[in-house]
Structures are given as structure tokens and as C-alpha cells.
Amino acid sequence: MTASERWWRDAVVYQVYPRSFSDGSGDGEGDLAGVRARLPYLADLGVDAIWLNPFYPSPQADGGYDVIDYRDVDPRFGTLADVDALIADAAALGIRIIVDVVPNHCSVEHPWFKAALAAGPGSPERERFLFRDGGPDGAPPNNWQSMFGGPAWTQVPDGQWYLHLWDSSQPDFNWRDPEVPALFEDVLRFWLDRGVAGIRVDVALGLFKAEGLPDLGEGMPTVGPGVPYVAQPETLETFASWRKLLDSYPPDVFPGARAAVLEAWFDDRDFMAPYMAHGQLHQVFNLGMLGTPWSAADLRKAVDLALDVCGDSETRAPWVLENHDFPRLVTRLGIDQELVRNPTIEVMQGKVDVDLALGRRRARAAALLLLGLPGSAYLYQGQELGLNEHLDIPADRRQDPLFTVSGGMIIGRDGCRVPLPWSGDAAPYGFTEGAGTWLPQPADWAALTVEAQAADEGSTLALYKTAIRIRRATEGLGDGALEWRDAGPDVLSFVRDGVLAVTVNLGDAPVELPAGEHVLTSGPLDGGLLPRDTAAWTRLP
Ligand code: NOJ
Questions:
Q1: CA atoms of 114 and 129, how far apart (whole Å)
Q2: At what angle do helices 460-473 and 356-372 cross, to 10 degrees?
């Protein structure tokens, strides 16, 4: 395969959360027309692909990860014709589209689940899900807990229970019922036929559960090796068949493969190796940096782990600093870093001091780290604007099941899902022509709008744009080798293919940079030295 055929190995992928990207219809919620209208912005930013979070019909109990119909568009987001137009317009600008596939669970409103409830115990309709009788004394069938808290089982009026590893409105499919894999093969074909270049697979390691649904052993972690609902061997067979399906699609508008990225956590080489083997799907997200504090030693460990896990396999784990499930980078880097290492309940409640100026400065440095690492990079919408987490959303406006299921104990993920600020001095900052936005925006985002930053050469938006442009033009960035340089314990420094050095100063004192042309820095140099919380790209002589 040529480099452009393996586009997924070094693509810059921009994650669009459709409900919060841009509103084309004026109802206060983002939609596909809004994404389409803003494509020139994304082309100008220089991204290679867009990953769209779910836009399928859904009651939105979990941000659209509760799907009613995998082969349609929720009217709030538009129509199938809008998807087709978006794919075509994006292609004309050289941008690929990646869609989210949610195969572990659906919505309680999905016709299959409604049929299962109506058909009763023992029916083929119930076989598509994991219905079981309860334990003695009215206990659920086993001790599994939902990722959002509380038992992973809900009882229905006839006495049986159904499994939901996430919200009670998201019943898990039974992947051992042949109808389920058959459905998802159709779903993949449906979107591939429409011209999507890739898929992101939600909860990828969760599909199969161990036969007999055994209890989780005492003291066991709730994710990872040995957990009865994680990474059962059949998952590999499914993904190998998906790989064949993807490979059977000829390059369409673009050269190269239709690719898949798995949403899975990894911190164990042996555990993940089978998923990165030849014949498996293309990539596994590398989400480790989302919880890594701003420390040279910790970040180096996270980078080494990711490189080690991928080894010399075909896969390259995409680097991720933000997504729709984690507090914004600026806020994470603006708090006491011990709280990133060991989050307290106060952090989960958003009751924490944030130094936004410090967070922004570090987040700018982190941008040059992200785009300097070997492999593809995912950017979450608004990351390029240096948006902070919105911590002050009133309780009655919060939507995330993490908030509701925890009885308000945990604020959850709404703060990173706030509608983007495009222009103007006050909410809704050009996001909508309508009166309000589905989640409220902070009152102090005027300086962070796209409009304000586009006019400012020193803005975070300008930094991302320049970095992506240089990355594209520089042999050695993107896919390829990394060699660490020793620049002291508080400095991350590595050279890409002998051509470009990436240096990030995480210590207090300014440090020397390697000799060469400093083609991009995240902040001003200090008499030729790299100040704290600053990064530089240096073209070596
Ligand atoms: C991971 C998604 O990123 C998250 O938003 C969702 O809540 C869970 N999977 C369940 O689908």
C-alpha cells in the first residue's frame, strides 16, 4: 500500500459533535446542514477527515449513543439527503467522512427492543438482547454494574431482566444471536455504499459477553483483561470479517482503504496485540493521554506505551487529547495536576480552581506535541479554539446520564459538549439564528469565537492551522519514526525522521533548543530559550 492509500495512519481527523457544531435550521441544536455550511472552515483548518458522532434517530438519552435506527438520520439533524450532500461537498474539498457505529447497544425505543418486550420470555425477539431471569430474593441475574453507575440490569414487568452496560435506556445486544451480526453487516454496507471513508466503532471490546454471564470476580477492575464483558475471543472473528468487508470496497472518490478505528482503552500490550494483528481492523484509539497529567515523565510513559503497544503492526494508534467524553484540555491543564492523576469527588463535581491562562498556554504547547507525534491525530471540535470546559451549567439544563444517574453527584460530560462559538460578542455566538442553544454557553467566550481568532495571528486557531499546514508539508511529520532526545527530566524532546525536532518544556526554567530553524513555537521564546509550558518545532540543519 502507498502512503496515500494508508491515509488513516497519519490523517488529521476533526471530530464533529453534530448537536453542538453549527445550527443550520435555527432551532438551537446543531445539524448536518450546519456542518455542511462550515466545511470551508474545516478545509481552511486543513483537516483530512471528519468523524461525526451519532446523528441517527435517537431519544438522545446518551447523546445519540442510544440508537433507534442505524440506517437513518434523526430529523433534528436532517435527512439522508443531507448526509449524501455532506459526503459529496466534503469530498470536493478533499475531506473524508467517518461515521460512528454503535454495535454494543441500541435504544429502548429501537423496534427490536419494543418487539422483545411485547414477545415475552423465551421468544426469538428476546434472543437479540440479553434477557435473563433474576437471582434469588429479587436480585439481578449477576453483579455487573453499569458504566454510569448502579446495576447493569433492569427488570421488565413480566419479571425478566435485561442487560445494559450503559444507561438503562441502552439495552445490550446479544452478539451470539446471528441476527445481530447480520444487522451490523447491513449497517456497515449501508454507510460504505453511501461513500463514507471510515467508521468509528463504539465500545468495541464489549460486544460479546462470556457464556453464562458469570459474576465479575471480587476486587476485579471493571474494564480490562479477564472481565467477562470485555474482549471475548469472538470479537476478533467479528472484526476480521468487518475488515474483509471494508477491504472489499474499492477506493471511491479517494485513493486508499475504507478504515475503522476502535474505541477501546489499552494499557497492556499482550491484551491489545490480537486487535492490532494482521487482518484485524485498522486502528485502536489511544486514549491514554486524556488522563495524563502535565508532566514530562508521565507523558513520555504514555507515548512509549502507545508506540510499544502498536509495535511494528500495521496499526497506528491515533493520538487524542480531547473528545466528547472528557473535560476540555485547557481546563484539565489549568488545574492542580495532582487532581488529574487522582481525581477527587470535587473534581467530578466541577468544584475546582482553574487557571485558564495557564491551561491555555499548556494546551497550545500540547497541540504541537499532538501534531508532532507519529501517526494520526484526532481533534475534537473547539480544541482548535482553546475552549475551556463549561463548569457552570445549571442542573436543570444538564443532559448527561452520568449527571442524572449519579443523582447530580457527578457533573458529567455536558461541559465539553457546549455549542461552538462562531462569531459575535455574546451567546449564541453565531451558533444559531434562533434564540437559544440546547446547552447554555459561557458568558465569556467572545474572545474565543472563530471570528475573533481568525483575525488574530497569535490565536490558538492560527497555531493549529499553521501546525497542520507545516505537518502536511514536512516529510517526517505524520507517519514515521520517533527518536527521543535527552533534554533533561522536565523536557519532552524527540526527532521525527531525522528532520524535525519537537521540544516541549514542562519544567519551570527556560531550556535550550536544538540548533536549527524554529519553524513554529506555541509561545514567544525567551532570548532564544524555550520558556516553561511552551513547545517548539525545529527544522534540523
Ligand atoms: C463511548 C461514547 O464515546 C460515549 O459517549 C458513550 O456514552 C458510550 N460509549 C456508550 O455508547
A1: 11
A2: 10
203 lines ligand 1 (CB under 6 A): yes
| Ligand 1 touching residue 62 (CB < 6 A) | yes
Give how far the C-alpha of residue 454 lies from the chain's centroid of Cα atoms, to the nearest Å: 25
Q: CA 57, CA 73: separation in Å to the nearest integer?
A: 5
Is 326 touching ligand 1 by the criterion CB < 6 Å?
A: no
**Whole-number pLDDT of residue 3:** 60
Task: Tell whether ligand 1 has an atom less than 6 A from the beta carbon of residue 89.
Answer: no
Q: What pLDDT is attached to residue 532?
A: 98
- CA 102 to ligand 1 center in whole angstroms: 9
Residue type, 145: Q
| Helix/strand/coil for 370 | helix
Task: Provide the pairing of β-strand 153-155 with 161-163.
Answer: antiparallel
Please count the other Cβ atoms lying within 10 Å of the Cβ belonging to residue 319.
24
Distance 90 CA to ligand 1 centre (A): 26
Through-space distance between the first and last CA atoms of the chain, rounded to whole angstroms: 31
> Is the pTM for the entire model greater than 0.90?
yes
Bridge-based pairing of strands 131-132 and 96-101 is unpaired
Q: What residues are annotated to the active site? A: 202, 263
Query: Mean pLDDT for each 10-residue chunk of the chain (541 residues)?
Result: 78 98 98 98 98 99 98 98 98 98 98 98 98 94 96 98 98 98 98 97 98 94 91 97 96 89 89 93 94 98 93 87 98 98 96 98 98 97 98 97 95 98 98 96 98 98 98 92 96 96 98 98 97 98 94
> Which residue type is seen at 256?
G
Give the span between the Cα atoms of 316 and 259, in whole angstroms.
12
pLDDT at 255: 86
Q: Looking at this protein, which amino acid is placed at residue 150?
A: G
In the block, cell 448502579 appears at 150
8 Å CB contact between 452 and 506: no
Q: Which atom, in ligand 1's list, is nearest to the CA of 63?
A: 5
Distance 248 CA to ligand 1 centre (A): 28
Ligand 1 lined by 167 (C-beta under 6 Å): no
Asked if 243 contacts 276 with a C-beta cutoff of 8 angstroms, the reply is no
Which of 67, 172, 200, 202 is the best mutation target for the ligand 1 pocket, counting ligand atoms within 8 Å of the beta carbon and taking the most? 202
Neighbours of 475 (CB within 10 A): 10
CB burial string 418-439: b at 16+ within 10 A, e below: bbbbbeeeebbbbbbeeeebbb
d(CA 150, CA 206): 18
Residue 266 CB burial class (10 angstroms; 0-12, 13-18, ≥19): buried
Residue to mutate (ligand 1; options 17, 56, 65; most atoms within 8 A of CB): 65
Q: Which amino acid is at 107?
A: S
**Nine-digit cell string for 295:** 508532566
Alpha helix ranges (H) inside 93-137: 111-119, 124-127
For the Cβ of 65 lying below 6 angstroms from any atom of ligand 1, the answer is yes
